[in-house]
Design goal:
This is ATP-binding cassette domain-containing protein. The protein is of the alpha+beta class. The chain contains 23 helices and 19 strands. Helix 7 runs parallel beside helix 14 and helix 13 runs antiparallel to helix 14. The longest helix is centred in the middle third of the chain and has 53 residues.
């Protein structure tokens, strides 16, 4: 067995070199490797390397952590089973007697595992039937080395999308946005019809002008001035009429198209805002910005310019065809001879362009994603001196974008000249057959001249239509990406008949609440009864489900099991916006918008007076530092609050929540970003502010929750303890251990600080 034989399979060529000598020693003479999988987990799910091979004769394996090799010859009852669970892939080799071997691997190897099973099934069946396996070469992704199908050009792992080709029919879905403009569209279409008809007049007038004026003049007859004036007046009048009608239809239809594009952008953005946090968790910011911005703009340009040209071309071709057949059917038939070939070429190239342009859109999304990551995170980039790394990421994405565009341009560069060649060929056919018809006396020179003029327009429009194929496919790709947003149904739906939320007391009840992220259970069987005006604290280790529980109460996500009640009514029965208006939320990571301090404070209540804004800022102990800013409450804050300290941003966030005077106040690590002195000030303010409000607080420092009416201790998504601080301390249970562990850390920090001094 040679090294070349080992590399014969695409997946094999990507194995680390350390396996090659060992594999070669295990193979017998003439035995070839069909596929291989490097497993990376042992039986205890610890990281360790092993390998499984499928050859044309048997299965070979070396388990992680072992030095010996195992071998199983192909048999009819031998089966290789593949499944995954909780992020771990499993392969099991079994026969009628039971399990022979089992291997585990991380899901990054899953595509290689699928390929291994395919090769196993093929060679086992070949061994049983005697029919040789037809070798199918497969390429690999240059980035992650995953095997690709023969016609697959993009890696499903790297693109992280389920690929479905866009269809030109997607553009017809835009008709729903044209509904409000039916009258304008009808008027514009009528103008287009009249304008196209006006363009048909001049070539027809060349027939009498040629046969009754020019040819008789060449034969010695005098020129009839009145007849010339009549025909010339007709040419001028038709030109002016075509200009006026063309201006009118272009203006009307362009206005309508722009409004359709604007409505599309608005509805897409509105729908995006109504989607749940779950949707945004799986999307890149740059990709969504690209869809709403550049993709909708591309559709708008298509509707306002190219679609109008396409419709005009279609009308011109139809009218020209009718006129040609009315003049001379045989000559018209020869005129349309290249048309089937052009139609076939357009059909073939359209499919390639359709898939290519969507690929370009996704690759361009990679470029915008780099920008969306880097620019907001520029402080982190500079802090870790990763400018060159981010520049390299951008160059790589830009190079990928260039390569995909180059590949598509190869197709388009051949298509467009080919259509032009066929149109020129069509005109040549007309000349040849037309001269023959004139020589036989079947048509006049004037008729041939008119045919040439009409044919030039016919093929000119046909060539223009073929060029619009590119724009149409780009727009179809853009429409598909926008409708991917519009078709997505929120996982937090609005109720069909919402319950009116008139007065809120603030009683919150959780009944056997459970929640899952995919297959992972985060919260299970949580039942808590929070009375109106009560303050409870949620405590527990990181990952115990505290923030998830708050997200469920805010209805950022809907519960997977159980129900959350507000004043005895399921919160899923309320309109989402009505329900959230009664919640004041202060997040662990405060977010400020670009604008003034006053605008950020009044974000939840835009109609708030300056006095109300100042009162909220005073309550959050933010008034003093705001007055020290150059323009006070009118001072501009940079994007995401740049220019303010973490504590200052947090206090503005607290004031913003307090300004709406909510009945329910949720503090998610609200004081984690402030110093001890500021924390004390905020705590003193909160003691008064929580009066009359149902308050749910999460705090890293347990000492800040001592004045809570009740503490709820979470561990691994379930409630393990509940009670007041003193009561929980006396039990010496989970809360006691948390408190003591934190106290020891504080003491250690103080001792270390003292020793350094």
């Amino acid at each position: 067995m040679t090294t070349e034989q080992l590399s014969s399979d695409s997946s094999q060529s990507e194995l680390p070199e350390r396996w090659r000598s060992e594999i070669q020693a295990q193979l017998s003479q003439g035995e070839n490797v069909a596929s291989a999988l490097e497993v990376d987990l042992d039986e205890q799910l610890r990281f360790s390397k092993g390998i499984i091979l499928v050859t044309d004769q048997r299965v070979l394996a070396r388990a992680p952590g072992r030095s010996d090799w195992q071998s199983w010859a192909f048999a009819k009852d031998l089966a290789l089973k593949h499944h995954d669970h909780a992020g771990v892939g499993h392969l099991e080799l079994v026969n009628q007697g039971g399990r022979l071997g089992a291997w585990r691997f991380t899901l990054g190897q899953n595509l290689h595992a699928i390929r291994l099973v395919e090769q196993f099934d093929a060679h086992r069946d070949s061994h049983a039937t005697g029919v040789p396996v037809v070798r199918e070469e497969k390429s690999v992704c240059p980035s992650c080395k995953a095997p690709l199908e023969p016609e697959q050009e993009e890696c499903p792992i790297c693109t992280k999308v389920v690929y479905t080709p866009p269809s030109t029919w997607t553009l017809f879905r835009l008709w729903r946005f044209a509904g409000p403009y039916k009258l304008q569209l009808g008027f514009g279409f009528a103008l287009m019809l009249l304008s196209t008809g006006a363009h048909m007049i001049p070539p027809y007038l060349t027939i009498p002008l040629m046969d009754k004026v020019l040819i008789p003049y060449q034969n010695g007859a005098p020129v009839d001035s009145s007849l010339v004036a009549l025909y010339m007046s007709g040419l001028v009048a038709s030109a002016v009429l075509a200009w006026v009608l063309g201006w009118g239809k272009t203006y009307v239809l362009a206005l309508v198209s722009e409004r359709i594009g604007a409505d599309l952008r608005t509805e897409t953005y509105d729908h995006l805002l109504r989607l749940s946090l779950e949707y945004f968790g799986g999307k890149r910011t740059g990709d969504l910005m690209s869809r709403i911005g550049s993709e909708s703009d591309r559709i708008c340009v298509f509707l306002s310019l190219h679609l109008l040209d396409f419709a005009s071309d279609c009308l011109m071709i139809i009218m020209t065809g009718v006129i040609l057949f009315s003049i001379d059917p045989w000559l018209a038939l020869f005129t349309l001879l290249p048309l089937p070939f052009i139609a076939w070429l357009i059909h073939v190239v359209r499919d390639r362009l359709r898939t290519g342009f969507e690929k370009i859109d996704r690759v361009w999304g990679e470029v915008t994603n780099v920008l969306a990551d880097t620019i907001p995170g520029i402080r982190v980039v500079k802090a870790f001196a990763q400018e060159s790394r981010e520049a390299s990421r951008f160059r790589t994405a830009n190079k990928h974008n260039l390569a995909v565009n180059d590949k598509l341009n190869k197709i388009w560069s051949l298509f467009s000249p080919t259509v032009s060649f066929l149109t020129e060929l069509g005109l040549l056919v007309i000349w040849v057959f037309g001269i023959y018809q004139v020589s036989k006396g079947h048509i006049t020179v004037g008729v041939l001249s008119a045919f040439i003029a009409y044919s030039s327009r016919f093929y000119g429009r046909l060539d223009s239509m073929s060029r619009i194929v590119s724009v149409t496919q780009k727009s179809a790709s853009a429409a598909k990406r926008i409708f991917d947003i519009l078709d997505h149904v929120s996982s937090v739906p609005e109720p069909a008949n919402p319950v009116k939320l008139a007065k809120v007391d603030g009683n919150i009840t959780l009944r056997e609440v459970g929640f899952r992220y995919g297959n992972r259970a985060v919260n299970r069987g949580i039942s808590i009864d929070i009375k109106a005006g009560e303050m409870i604290g949620l405590v527990g280790h990181s990952g115990s489900g505290k923030s998830t529980l708050v997200n469920l109460i805010c209805r950022f996500y809907d519960v997977s099991e159980g129900a959350i009640m507000l004043d005895g009514v399921d919160i899923r029965s309320f309109a989402v916006s009505d329900y959230r208006r009664n919640i004041g939320l202060v997040l662990q990571e405060p977010f400020l918008f670009f604008g003034t301090i006053a605008e950020n404070l009044a974000y939840g209540k835009p109609e708030a007076t300056r006095a109300e804004i100042i009162a909220a800022a005073r309550a959050a102990h933010a008034h003093e530092f705001i007055l020290r800013l150059p323009q006070g409450y009118d001072s501009m804050v940079g994007e995401r609050g740049q220019g303010l300290s973490g504590g200052e941003r947090q206090r503005i966030s607290i004031a913003r929540a307090l300004l709406i005077d909510p009945k329910i106040l949720i503090l998610d690590e609200a004081t984690s970003s402030v110093d001890s002195e500021t924390e004390k000030e905020i705590q003193r303010a909160l003691e008064n502010l929580v009066q009359g409000r149902t308050t749910i607080a999460i705090a890293h420092r347990l000492s800040t929750l001592q004045k809570a009416d009740r503490l709820v201790v979470l561990d691994r998504g379930v409630v393990v303890e509940e009670g007041a601080h003193d009561d929980l301390m006396s039990r010496e249970g989970a809360y006691y251990r948390l408190y003591q562990a934190q106290a020891r850390n504080v003491d250690t920090d103080l001792d270390d600080s003292a020793s350094k001094e």
